[in-house]
Amino acid sequence: MPGEIGRKVLLSIEKCVFGGDGLAHWGERVVFIPGVLPGECVRAVITAEKRDFLRARAEEIVTASPRRVIPVCPYAGHCPGCACMHVDFAGENELKNAQFREFAVRAGFAEDKLVPPLAPEPETGYRNKLVLHVNKAGSDVMIGYVGSDNQTVFPVEKCCLAHPEINEFLAGQLADPGFRHTVHHRMELTYRRTDHGGVFFFRNKLPRGVSWLRENTILGELACPADGFFQVNTNGANALLRRMEEELRDFQPETILDLYCGAGLFSAAAAHAGVKNILGAEIAENSVEAARYNLKKLGRPDAEFISGDAAGLIRSMLRRHPDTRTMLVMDPPRGGILPKMQEALVCTPPGTRLVYISCNPATWARDAARLIARGFVPVRAGMLNQFARTGHFEVISVLDKGLCA
Fold first, then answer.
1. CATH class entry, domain 8-68
2. Residue ranges matching CATH 2.40.50.140 in the chain
3. Fewer beta carbons within 10 Å, N or C terminal of the chain?
């Protein structure tokens, strides 16, 4: 057994890192510890020893931060989802903005290029989508979130982040003795909630013939497949749209490429702004169909969407719309952009504007640094607390293609 596990230590918390853990030093070694805040002094026990760092668990808060609050969630400190339930919302936003600024400066954004953070409310009850998992052994059935070990299931009866209607629907299921007999080991349970249809529920894959959901936004109603991507925080989606509208007014593009377009959220903003040429790409064919439908409803049946490679759309754009003022918008998966996408971006003409939105600041910082090294110029970047009370947040960044690559 490693020598430090079980050792009692007194730690002074220096800061909170991305994901929510506090960082302290014990001697020359870095220690990560959940559930603490900068400036606090805690008595802790070492729980894991790695080559480069230690992990610890707080046993007593000796000196508490003035930002510390009593969590509203009964699962706080146990459920793997929420890392910020013990800090007030203003303090959470300060912590996340500090983390964002570290990522941004590391990527190549000067301090004067960083804009104030956005923090849509409410801080709880905002999620319009919930995915729970089933662990079943005989008559023992657990329904909840996958634990930090990616194997066990932490059972929950409600989630403070979920919309109240989702929690009410879930409570009805759990109160039904027959419901647990209808679920199976490793089954995935998905709950989606909209203003129009209330709560929609399905097990594992979406059944055939299900109608699209209708999501309300500041631009009007948008259709989205029930198993398709839509922002999980509706107020956060509207905050993104407002920022996008600002970027469209600032740059006034003639052509916009909506890469990883989903159901066409940012294309809808471009249509509202009167952008002449709107093109989008998305791997999911049902989302592409929804994007076409949404833009047609907005009076833009000429908007073009393809199901396939977003990098290929850039190359096609260069051939079909040369010498136009072009904006690229992309909100890729958490893994960031692939090398072929980076190469396609680098091949865009000087003056092209890129709006890069990311739910993973670590991969965003990696990608932004690579793009800056190959000719992109940082314009501005900011943090959107799209995922309040968790350890995650969104980045909204703008870069211009420079003269060299």
1. mainly beta
2. 8-68
3. N
